[in-house]
């Protein structure tokens, strides 16, 4: 066989392909496709498997992992049932609200609360793309100990981040990340949300980047009621107001009759950087 430029090039390409693993080629191909061929138009989407379920998501999430907080989703499957109410405090892009909506179904209710305008845009798109509008209600607000008025909210990466927080505009226990912008957002408390909704949730997920004690202080009626909800609580000690906040949260929860479990199911008396399942006495 004659060596021509085409043959030489083909042999070089063949040799390169043989040296690369198939998984690497697939990854490179997908990366090229999603970054070049599937740019976000504001209305298009990708079908993405997430924790075993298929969802329609914004193209930017096409290359994300196939799991997202799987232990939290497992807790939702364990404790929620059709017809229940679920509150997602710090809903971010809706990746917990979506499986919750699937579980509670059309007879249930999901309240998704998120203050960041950029995150809200994706949250609302995901709800619409997955046809959950009749189940999920979106509230643009920050949950804290006060109801009414506004609070200063810090945005990272212009707001499209899971780490936006109420805490970065004031002194915190640890070092704050670099803030790109501060905005004023409506303030609500869980007790006021309960009064407005007229129905206690079965489960409340709280993931608010250091402001979790603020949220709990605004929920004393809810937590001490006969229908106190199960809490899925994400704790961020390094962004809390004081080093004592974790112990104060433990005291508040235990005073309301809660037991606090880690993701392995063991009872704990102290909180660290992790997610916890908090069970009321009525569970």
UniProtKB/TrEMBL annotation:
Gene Ontology terms: biological process: methylation
GO MF terms, alphabetically ordered: methyltransferase activity
Chain ranges of the Methyltransferase FkbM domain: 88-260
InterPro entries linked: FkbM_mtfrase, SAM-dependent_MTase, SAM-dependent_MTases_sf
The keyword Disulfide bond belongs to this UniProt entry's keyword annotation: no
UniProt signal peptide: none
Top-level taxon of the source organism: Bacteria
Keyword Methyltransferase: yes
Keywords assigned by UniProt, alphabetized: Methyltransferase, Transferase
Pfam hit, one: Methyltransf_21
Name of the molecule in the record: Methyltransferase, FkbM family
């Amino acid at each position: 066989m004659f060596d021509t430029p085409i043959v030489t090039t083909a042999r070089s390409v063949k040799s390169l392909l043989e040296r690369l693993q198939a998984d690497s080629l697939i990854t490179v191909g997908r990366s090229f496709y999603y970054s070049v061929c599937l740019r976000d138009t504001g209305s298009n989407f990708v079908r993405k498997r997430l924790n075993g379920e298929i969802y329609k998501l914004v193209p930017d999430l096409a290359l994300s992992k196939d799991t997202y907080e799987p232990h939290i989703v497992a807790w939702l499957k364990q404790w929620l049932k059709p017809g229940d109410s679920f509150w997602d405090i710090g809903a971010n892009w809706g990746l917990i609200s979506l499986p919750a909506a699937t579980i509670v179904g059309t007879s249930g209710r999901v309240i998704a609360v998120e203050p960041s305008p950029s995150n809200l845009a994706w949250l609302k798109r995901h709800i619409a793309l997955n046809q959950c509008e009749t189940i999920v209600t979106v509230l643009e607000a920050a949950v804290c100990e006060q109801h009414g008025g506004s609070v200063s909210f810090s945005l990272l990466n212009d707001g499209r981040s899971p780490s936006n927080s109420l805490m970065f505009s004031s002194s915190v226990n640890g070092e704050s990340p670099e803030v790109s912008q501060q905005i004023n957002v409506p303030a609500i408390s869980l007790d006021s949300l309960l009064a407005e909704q007229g129905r206690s949730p079965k489960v409340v997920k709280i993931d608010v980047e250091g402001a979790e004690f603020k949220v709990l202080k605004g929920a004393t009626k809810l937590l001490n009621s006969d229908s106190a909800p199960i809490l899925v609580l994400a704790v961020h000690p390094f962004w809390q107001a004081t080093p004592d906040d974790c112990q104060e949260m433990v005291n508040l929860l235990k005073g309301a009759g809660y037991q606090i479990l880690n993701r392995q199911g063991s009872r704990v008396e102290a909180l660290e950087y992790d997610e916890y399942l908090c069970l009321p006495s009525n569970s």
